[in-house]
Site-2 protease family protein (Alkalihalobacterium chitinilyticum), 161 residues
Amino acid sequence: MGGIVQAIRGIYHLLLLIPSIKISTIYSPERDLIGQLELYTSLAQLMNSTVLGLALLSLLYAMINLLPIPGLDGGRLVLLFLEEIGTQLGLKESFLQKSMKACLITGTFFLFSPFIINNIWSISLELGLPFIEIILWIMLLISIFMNIHIFLEKQEVLRKR
């Protein structure tokens, strides 16, 4: 019974921490992958009971998974709801599919943005380049790879003719 009380106290203390979280604690160069792993390690040390810790992690995962963000299960429910509304309004299927893809990409970027931004920020500090310059170089590389992919797809289509 003491383990359940300890788990409930842990959840209570985690919920109390939520209002004190600032954007600068999520997005900063010190919060790169190693820093985030250290955070998870310290949280794991907080949960000393293995069974209750796994139950707590499962409960937290279920709650986070139901958030209405595309890319999570809650987001799928939102996308299904939006698709149903779109069909009721008589929108074209191709438009709905493109909209759903855009929502999924946006939701996925939202989910992984702390990891992406923090690691790029950390790399920019290590290289001594401004953050914006690193972002521009990455965008340039992505556009080059996209153009190569489009070129190769067109070549494949021409070969099939």
